[in-house]
């Protein structure tokens, strides 16, 4: 009888505890909410339970009622950047969120080059540790996890930037956020959901991959690995889906190396991923990404070049921009370039110039636009090179071919914002390639110092 009484009392405590208002970890002390927007606060409570929500920036409270599924949510207008604020939620219990800021929130995702941090011995981060403390720059680290189905909860906690929290955090993300803080003068939050080695398929809803024959065929070629998932949707379900109620300004992405073997489908795959993320959040946020760096993938293959080409082609998708980093590589045998500072800075300049409309000296690399043939020369025209081009040293990585499709080293002359290309013995040139091999490091830049993106004018099959 006593045992039955104790079990009954404990069961009663369980009911009370489970009825309490609960929040996901991403809604917690020290978080940053997107400014001048509509924030969603959500969580769990007893069905029918009314939750009163009072925010420090509003004079009147908001309210929500938990559904039959024990879920509640409320949308609240956010003000201009500021804080700290307190948010109080009252139901059968009271939850108080403290030290809340209003500012700019960005998602950082991808594979190892986004994941890499001070824990990997990056010298740029080591130099930052003594001076990085900034309570207005905050981090939320998403733990590596997978799921077969979309989740609504992911563990983690919000922290302010200091030497302890910076060291394990994304270096690219940090330098991106630091520059936004400097130029915008508002609080900045970074949510890092990245995992080394992962192909883009795992960050895309599974049905959008398996339901498209060409994407499904490419996904089937991915080799299983003991250190990261390769099955479509796995990390989207567990590391992205739980965040989609949390308003963001945009996303930065550094990934592609693991898809180099299936470059022909990378463009439609990335368009699918970006579109799915925007649909999940319900906003057409900007998506800025890094073109993969020069790396010796092995002889007899152009897999790196073809992947970079696919990344360039993805720029046709709305509200995207790409950081070219071919000049930031010191060792083409290392798939992880150690210079993360300038990568983060270039991504930040994309956001500042493209999304925030600030005056940035230059934020887009010159990219191939079109060509015209003049006698025995081909004139290459570029986008984003209005002030002209600069060659640093003797021209290299330029090749030209005629009807026989055999490429030979080219002679190059810069004329304003065009490049005039010719080749010995080629009277009727048909195609030009620049830095179109895996480990090529070009040396032609915009006047503002951004490298020209690798390209080819042809679409000839690789022999």
Short description:
The chain has helices spanning 2-19, 112-115, 123-128, 163-166, 171-184, 206-210, 213-220, 234-240, 266-281, 303-313, 341-355; strands at residues 32-34, 38-44, 50-55, 62-65, 71-77, 82-90, 94-110, 134-141, 158-161, 188-194, 250-254, 287-290, 320-323, 367-374, 377-383, 389-391, 398-401, 408-409, 411-415, 418-422, 431-434, 444-446, 455-456. It has 463 residues and is of the alpha/beta class.
Number of helices: 11
Tally of DSSP β-strands: 23
Largest sheet: 11 strands, mixed
The averaged pLDDT comes out at 95
| Overall helicity | 10-25%
Low-confidence stretches: 1-17
Category from helices, strands and their pairing: alpha/beta
Radius of gyration over C-alpha positions, nearest whole angstrom: 25 Å
Coarse shape: elongated
Distance between the termini: 83 Å
SSE blueprint and pairings:
Layout: H1 2-19, E1 32-34, E2 38-44, E3 50-55, E4 62-65, E5 71-77, E6 82-90, E7 94-110, H2 112-115, H3 123-128, E8 134-141, E9 158-161, H4 163-166, H5 171-184, E10 188-194, H6 206-210, H7 213-220, H8 234-240, E11 250-254, H9 266-281, E12 287-290, H10 303-313, E13 320-323, H11 341-355, E14 367-374, E15 377-383, E16 389-391, E17 398-401, E18 408-409, E19 411-415, E20 418-422, E21 431-434, E22 444-446, E23 455-456
Parallel strand pairs: 1-7, 7-10, 7-11, 8-10, 11-12, 12-13
Antiparallel strand pairs: 2-5, 3-4, 3-6, 6-7, 8-9, 14-15, 15-20, 16-22, 17-18, 17-21, 19-20, 21-23
Helix pairs in contact: 5-11
């Amino acid at each position: 009888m006593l045992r039955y009484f104790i079990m009954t009392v404990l069961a009663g405590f369980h009911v009370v505890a489970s009825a309490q208002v609960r929040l996901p970890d991403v809604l917690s002390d020290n978080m940053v909410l997107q400014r001048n927007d509509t924030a969603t606060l959500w969580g769990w409570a007893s069905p029918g339970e009314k939750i009163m929500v009072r925010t420090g920036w509003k004079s009147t409270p908001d309210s929500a009622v938990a559904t039959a599924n024990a879920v509640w949510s409320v949308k609240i207008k956010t003000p201009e950047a500021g804080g700290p604020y307190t948010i109080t939620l009252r139901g059968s219990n009271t939850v108080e969120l403290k030290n809340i800021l209003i500012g700019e929130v960005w998602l950082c995702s991808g594979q190892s080059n986004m994941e890499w941090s001070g824990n990997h011995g990056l010298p740029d981060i080591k130099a930052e540790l003594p001076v990085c403390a900034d309570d207005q720059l905050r981090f939320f680290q998403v733990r590596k996890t997978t799921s077969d189905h979309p989740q609504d909860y992911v563990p983690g906690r919000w922290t302010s930037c200091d030497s302890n929290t910076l060291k394990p955090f994304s270096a690219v993300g940090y330098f991106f956020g630091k520059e936004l803080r400097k130029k915008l003068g508002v609080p900045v939050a970074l949510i890092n959901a990245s995992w080394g080695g992962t192909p883009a398929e795992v960050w895309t809803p599974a049905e959008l991959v398996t339901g498209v024959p060409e994407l499904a065929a490419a996904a089937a070629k991915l080799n299983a690995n003991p250190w990261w998932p390769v099955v479509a949707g796995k990390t989207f379900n567990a590391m992205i889906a739980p965040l989609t109620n949390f308003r963001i300004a945009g996303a930065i992405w550094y990934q592609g190396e693991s898809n180099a073997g299936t470059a022909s489908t990378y463009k439609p795959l990335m368009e699918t991923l970006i579109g799915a993320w925007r649909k999940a959040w319900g906003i057409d946020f900007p998506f800025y990404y890094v073109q993969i760096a020069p790396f010796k993938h092995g002889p007899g293959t152009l897999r790196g070049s073809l992947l970079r080409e696919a990344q360039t082609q993805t720029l046709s998708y709305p509200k995207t921009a790409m950081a070219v980093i071919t000049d930031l590589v010191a060792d083409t045998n290392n798939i992880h370039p150690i210079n993360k500072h300038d990568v983060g800075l270039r991504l930040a300049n994309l956001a500042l110039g493209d999304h925030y409309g600030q005056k940035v000296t230059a934020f887009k690399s010159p990219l191939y636009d079109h060509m015209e043939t003049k006698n025995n020369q081909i004139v290459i025209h570029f986008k984003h090179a209005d002030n002209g081009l600069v060659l640093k040293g003797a021209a290299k990585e330029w090749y030209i071919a005629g009807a026989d499709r055999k490429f030979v080293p080219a002679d190059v002359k810069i004329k304003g914002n065009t490049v005039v290309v010719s080749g010995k013995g080629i009277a009727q040139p048909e195609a030009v390639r620049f830095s179109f091999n895996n480990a090529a490091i070009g040396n032609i830049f915009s006047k503002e110092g951004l490298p020209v993106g690798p390209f080819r004018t042809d679409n000839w099959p690789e022999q």
